[in-house]
Design a protein that fits this description.
Strand order of the largest sheet: 1-18-17-16-15
Helix content: under 10%
CATH class: Mainly Beta
Strand content: 35-45%
Bound molecules: 2-acetamido-2-deoxy-beta-D-glucopyranose
Largest sheet: 5 strands, antiparallel
Enzyme class: lyase
Number of helices: 0
Main location: secreted
Number of strands: 25
CATH architecture: 6 Propeller
Protein name: peptidylamidoglycolate lyase
Subcellular location: Secreted
Distance between the termini: 41 Å
Pfam family, one: NHL
Length: 342
């Protein structure tokens, strides 16, 4: 079903699968992310101080939503040896979500008294927020209107590896039909798929291309669901690769089971964040022994990979605005960056 593909550094390796992506269904992108374009990187300082931004997203109004840790930092006192959170620290009493307009003004804040150690953030097609809390080992849905938690997966503060527990989940992606993909995360290194009611329906296992390649994820840190291509991509951070799989979401004749390997990019550095816009997968990597921190783009229709923002390290999360401007959060130093290709 799949053929061995030789992969060079920063080369996108297309792998033949039972049912390849139907490119006729996807629209031509309006812009491209290329190295021949120069990038402009600016520090983006919100009008009001916020904590370390672990997750970032763009809402329907093209505002930046930052999921941040307020005064909390992740250090050696945060977790016990058994991965449980240090309960003496309690919840973060202050707001952990900030909505910031493109002019840097903080226009709304919420999420106080709910989270222990914020991590991932995504916004679903209805505009509702989904977050992961590595402290409580949970995934939560927050209603955008009421700003209240309306659904939680995982048992609060109890790490585990079964169908109803996570251990430091890193990211979440949600399909239009309500199916939920969870990257679970720092300890379990697995990717799970749940139905809209939170029942486990599938697990996505790492693609095993040849004996040179690790056969399991090591810290899946970010997910990007490209629903119109029927693809979910996993930033397999410590294996320094991105792997993309069938989502199992399409119905009828087009149905492909969940988790068939579609494409991958290998040896691209420690990938902290991936997000998609107009069928470009944009990523941010951290420094590793072999590869300098940078950003990359993969044209999901041709597989062409480009790199930019070379040397931009410490990136944790990434979001792309409707005009293609990218927002990157760094933890150390704690700041947001605006990255524009010009
Ligand atoms: C947290 O909220 C309290 C009360 O409103 C405020 O005094 C304090 O400055 C806030 N701390 C942070 C880090 O935002």
């Amino acid at each position: 079903m799949r053929q061995a593909t030789a992969c060079l550094v920063v080369l996108f390796c297309a792998v033949a699968s039972a049912q390849p992506i139907d490119y006729d269904r996807v629209e031509e992108p309006e812009r491209s992310y290329r190295t021949e374009e120069k990038e402009m990187i600016e520090v983006f300082t919100p009008s009001k101080p916020i904590g370390q931004v672990s997750g970032i997203a763009i809402n329907a109004n093209d505002h930046i939503v930052a999921f941040h840790r307020s005064n909390r930092v992740w250090d050696e006192k945060s977790f016990n040896d058994d991965e449980t959170f240090n309960k003496a620290l309690g919840v973060i009493p202050n707001a952990t979500l900030a909505i910031i307009n493109r002019e840097k003004k903080v226009i709304d804040e919420f999420g106080a008294g709910l989270f222990y150690m914020p991590h991932g953030l995504t916004i679903d097609s209805n505009g509702d927020y989904w977050v992961t809390d590595v402290g409580s080992h949970q995934v939560h849905k927050i209603d955008a209107k009421t700003q209240k938690i309306v659904m939680s997966l995982g048992e609060k503060l109890v790490p585990g590896e079964d169908e109803t527990h996570f251990c430091k989940p890193t990211d979440v992606a949600v399909a239009k039909n309500g199916h939920i993909f969870v990257a679970d995360g720092y300890c379990n290194s697995r990717v799970l798929k749940f139905d809209a009611n939170g029942n486990l329906i599938a697990q996505i296992n790492a693609a095993f291309e040849d004996n040179q390649q690790p056969s399991e994820f090591v810290v899946p840190h970010s997910l990007s669901l490209i629903e119109d291509m029927d693809v979910i991509c996993v930033a397999d951070r410590e294996n320094q690769r991105v792997q993309c799989f069938s989502t199992g979401l399409s119905e009828g004749d087009r149905h492909v089971p969940t988790g068939i390997p579609i494409t991958s990019a290998n040896d691209i550095g420690r990938v902290f964040a991936i997000r998609e816009r107009e069928h470009y997968l944009i990523g941010a990597t951290g420094d590793s022994e072999d590869v300098q921190a940078q950003m990359f783009s993969i044209d999901m229709q041709t597989g062409r990979t480009e790199t930019f923002a070379k040397g931009l390290g410490e990136s944790h999360a990434l979001a792309i605005a409707s005009d293609g401007v990218m927002y990157v959060s760094q933890l150390e130093p704690s700041r947001l960056l605006q990255v524009r290709l010009i």
